[in-house]
Design a protein that fits this description.
It comes from Caenorhabditis elegans. By secondary structure, this protein is an alpha/beta fold. The protein is 36% helix and 19% strand.
C-alpha cells in the first residue's frame, strides 16, 4: 500500500498539483484506506518534484537531520551497507500494476470522466495500457470495489465499447455530436480510425480564430466546437458557458489544425463549403503568420486535392512573414472544376503580385462565382473576372477605366449574369453615358437596359458609388 500511496502523490506532482491540494485529496481518497501523514506526503512530493520518481526509495537512508544516539547511527550505517550489497529495485509508476491501478482508483474516486482520465493517464504515466483494461479498472473502482489486487480473470468476460461490431460503433458515432466525436477519437487508435472514416459524410467545415490567440473554433455542419488554452493544456467545449474537457497538452491552434487535417484527408470527402477565417483585430503578426503556415502545411500534406464547391478564405492568414500574398499556394490544393464559388479576402496594394499568380490557375479559371471582400485595388485588370457568371467587387481607387472594363465584360462574356461593383472613394454618377451615349438623363428608377449580343441586362445606378447588374428576363 505504500507503493500505491506514493504513486498517487507522484501522479499529482506530474499533474502539477500543490502539496496541500494533493494531501487533502489523498486523505479523502487514500488507496486501501491507508493513513498518510502530512510530513511523509511533504517528503515524497519534494523528492518527486526534484526529478527522482523512484517509488521504492527507503526514506531511512536519508541523512540524519540532527545528532542522534550511537544506536541510531549504527542502524543508519547498517541500512546503507545493506543497500550497497543488496540495492532496492527502482520502481516507477509504469513498472508496477498496483501503482498504475492506484492512479486509476484516485481518478475514479474523484469522478473524473473516464475519457479525460484515460487521456491524463497516458499523458502523465504511460500509454501502454489498453483502453479496455483501463475501462475495466476504472469502473470497478467507480462502483465501490477498491481492491488493487483484484484478479481480473475472475470477472466474467465483458464487451467494451471498442469491441462492439464496427457498424454499431459507426451508428453510435453518427448520432453523436461533433464535440463527442472529437473526444472519442482521442481514446484509442481504433476509435480514431472509426471516427475519421465517418468524416466523408461532412458537408461543411469552417475554422475560425476570432477573438485572440488562446481560442480557436471548428464548425462542422453547423455544430460548433471551441478549442481554448488553459493552464492544464488545450480543452474543448460546446460554448463558453460549459466547462471544457482536456484533450491534450499542446496549443489550441495545433490541435484544431490536427483535427481539421483528420477531416480533410478523407478521400471521399465532398464539401459544399470550406471556410477559414481570422478576424483582423488579432494584432499579433507572429500568430497570423503561424496560423497561415500551419494551414498551408496541412493542405500540402493532403494526399489529394480537396473536393470543395464553395471556398471562403480570409486575407489575414494568406500572407507569409515577408508579407507576400499567397493565394495561389492555397488555391492550388482545391480540385479545379469542382470549385464553383469563391469568397476571397484582398486587402492592400502589396497583394497584387500574389493575386496575379492566382488568376493563372485552373482553379480560378474554372470557377463560376467570385466575391472579393475588403477592397480590390482599381489597378487590377477586370478582364481577370471575364469568365465568371457572377462578380461581387469593392474597388478601391476606382476610375473611369474600371467602368469601361465592366462594360467590356458585358459585351464579351457569354457567361456573365450578375454583378455588383462598388467604387470607393469616387462616385459613378455621370458615367451612365459610357453604357448609352444617347442617354441625356437617368430614368426615375435609375435603371437602364443594356443590350449585348448575348442578352439584355438591367444596370442599376440607384446608389452613388455602386453599379448593380442583372439580366432583364422580360426583354
Amino acid at each position: 500500500m505504500k507503493i500505491a500511496s506514493r504513486a498517487v502523490l507522484l501522479y499529482q506532482v506530474l499533474d502539477k498539483k500543490g502539496v496541500l491540494e494533493t494531501f487533502s485529496e489523498l486523505k479523502l481518497h487514500s488507496p486501501g484506506n491507508e493513513i498518510v501523514r502530512f510530513s511523509d506526503a511533504e517528503f515524497w512530493i519534494s523528492r518527486f518534484e526534484s526529478g527522482n520518481h523512484d517509488l521504492n526509495y527507503d526514506k531511512r537512508l536519508e541523512p540524519l537531520s540532527a545528532i542522534r544516539s550511537p544506536i541510531q547511527m549504527l542502524r543508519k550505517t547498517a541500512l546503507r551497507l545493506r543497500n550497497v550489497f543488496r540495492p532496492r529495485k527502482v520502481i516507477h509508476i509504469s513498472d508496477s500494476q498496483v501503482a498504475m491501478r492506484a492512479c486509476i482508483l484516485f481518478d475514479a474516486l474523484n469522478e473524473i470522466p473516464i475519457f479525460e482520465s484515460y487521456r491524463k493517464f497516458c499523458r502523465l504515466v504511460s500509454n501502454s495500457m489498453e483502453y479496455r483494461d483501463y475501462e475495466f479498472w476504472y469502473y470497478l473502482f467507480y462502483h465501490g470495489n477498491k481492491e488493487l489486487h483484484y484478479v481480473q480473470s475472475e470477472e466474467p468476460p465483458q464487451t467494451s465499447f471498442v469491441d462492439l461490431p464496427i457498424q454499431i460503433v459507426s451508428d453510435i458515432l453518427d448520432g453523436s455530436t461533433v464535440l463527442d466525436r472529437m473526444i472519442v477519437r482521442r481514446v484509442s487508435r481504433k476509435l480514431e480510425a472509426l471516427v475519421d472514416k465517418n468524416h466523408h459524410s461532412i458537408k461543411s467545415v469552417a475554422a475560425h480564430s476570432l477573438h485572440d490567440e488562446s481560442e480557436c473554433k471548428l464548425v462542422i455542419d453547423g455544430d460548433l466546437v471551441e478549442y481554448y488554452n488553459s493552464p492544464e493544456g488545450c480543452k474543448i467545449r460546446k460554448d463558453c458557458r460549459m466547462d471544457g474537457i482536456l484533450i491534450g497538452s499542446g496549443d489550441c491552434l495545433e490541435l484544431v489544425m490536427a483535427d481539421l487535417k483528420a477531416i480533410l484527408q478523407n478521400p471521399k470527402l465532398k464539401l459544399r463549403m470550406f471556410n477559414v477565417n481570422m478576424r483582423c483585430y488579432i494584432k499579433s503578426e507572429e500568430y497570423r503568420v503561424e496560423y497561415g503556415t500551419i494551414l498551408k502545411k496541412v493542405l500540402k500534406l493532403l494526399p489529394h486535392l480537396l473536393n470543395v464547391k464553395k471556398l471562403k478564405l480570409d486575407s489575414n492568414f494568406l500572407r507569409d512573414k515577408e508579407n507576400n500574398y499567397e493565394l495561389a499556394s492555397v488555391l492550388s490544393h482545391f480540385k479545379p472544376g469542382t470549385l464553383e464559388h469563391m469568397i476571397l479576402g484582398f486587402h492592400r496594394e502589396s497583394d497584387i503580385p500574389g493575386f496575379e499568380k492566382a488568376v493563372r490557375l485552373k482553379q480560378w479559371l474554372q470557377a463560376k462565382n467570385i466575391k472579393m471582400y475588403w477592397k480590390v485595388d482599381g489597378r487590377i485588370p477586370l478582364e481577370h473576372f471575364l469568365h465568371f457568371t457572377s462578380v461581387n467587387l469593392e474597388i478601391w481607387n476606382g476610375s473611369r477605366r474600371n467602368v469601361i472594363d465592366i462594360r467590356n465584360i458585358l459585351i464579351e462574356s457569354p457567361h456573365f449574369r450578375y454583378g455588383r461593383f462598388k467604387f470607393s472613394p469616387i462616385t459613378i454618377r455621370g458615367l451612365e453615358q459610357m453604357f448609352d451615349p444617347n442617354l441625356d438623363r437617368l430614368p426615375l428608377d435609375c435603371r437602364i437596359n443594356y443590350r449585348t449580343r448575348h442578352r439584355v441586362f438591367v444596370i442599376n445606378f440607384a446608389y452613388h458609388s455602386e453599379i448593380l447588374i442583372f439580366p432583364n428576363f422580360t426583354a
